[in-house]
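User: Quick sanity check before I run a bigger batch. Here is a single chain. Can you write out its predicted 3D structure?
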Amino acid sequence: MVSIKKTLLILAVLHCTAGFSQLPHAEEIAPKMYPGWNLGNTLEGGGSDNIYTNKGGLGAEKAWQGTTTTQAIIDFVAAKGFKSVRIPAAWVMGHITDADEMTIDSDWMARVKEIVDYCINAHLYVVLNDHWDGGWIQGTFKSDISEPTVEKNCIKMKKLWTQIAEAFKDYDEHLLFAGLNEPEAETEPQIKALMTYEQAFIDAVRATGGNNASRTLVVQGPNTSIELSSKYVDMSKFVDSASKALMIEVHYYSPPQFTGVWEGPNGDEPYYFWGAANHVPSGSYVKYNSTWGEEAYVREQFDMVKEAFVDKGFPVILGEYGANWREFSNGSIQKKHDASIRLFHKTVNEEAIKRGIIPYVWDINNPNRYGTGGIMCIIDRSTLSVFDQNSLDGIIEGCAAATWGGPTSGIRCINSSAATTKATGQCYNLAGQRVAADTKGILIIDGKKRIIR
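Assistant: Done. Predicted structure follows.
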């Protein structure tokens, strides 16, 4: 006969493990995550002089932008059609109470959790990372990738991510972890060191158990470059106790003269107009037409990561992309530029989604275009309003124009007469209601999705 004490112990164990299960695979959740939005310049704010200290405090949230994140802001983001939020976060840069143990300040952890919960409450997916963070790892690739340094940093990384993983252990598949942000690795030895760091991240999270045992984790390609990642990263080389629970992250800011991340150090002109239909045909503004990096280039780049990763079962996160929305006194020039911004965002979203890539637009909550300098800000968080409607419209149009994973969706386009001929009377709409075979729209006919026009 089992003793009462042993029975209680068994019940306690069952109670502790009942909430944990195999979470959906990365390929299962990826189609539910687009489009994505960045809570930029917020939880990653602060200064590099605060590394391994607790000097950042809760005030770091407003160090680079002026609005405290609220549930209302996240609800507004969700209402605009975004399905997931990427939360860039600093930990080492101003939120460490014990440098040796990499102990994260409890108040900071609580605030990060609060914001993650805002997103979960709004039924959004969340990608939580360790951003630039003062460069404690990401800035070391060109200075020191010696074995002792990498080993020492791996120990620190494991301590850091063990705490984060433990804090979010019971969250379901709506929360993903991303180990880094933009690791400055370019050469093969540097990329080897990067893979070592990312393996340490994976090991640390998995070791905490619970839902973390099967949570989807995101590793970053070298420099988050599409070319370098596609050439050098073999996702099958990672040792992961979970099955089908990894994604890879790249970023996209091309051409940099148009997106605004680089105007050209050699006197190169910025690009104000993107897409052949938006080029200025003559006059003094002709020199501001994009000369490379337009629609065909987007497709070429995204094909590269699709072949390298998506086709092999690893979804891709386009963790950051965007283009500076600029201001002109000339109305016709402004119109051309606005159309360029809209087309850029439409193209990036449409071509990414078709290839199984999840796009996250960069947004820094600074509603000021600074003239022709421009800004990447779609949502004005202080007023709960849209600042850059051109970018948002482009995102919406791109999502509407694309089918996840491309044309092999199983949805066939046929006319109503064909539907009537082939159907056996079993016709339903997407709500599961029985309808006539010549009803217009997407129908389930003989168990298959078909578009009736």
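The longest strand covers residues 246-252.

User: Great, the batch can go ahead then.
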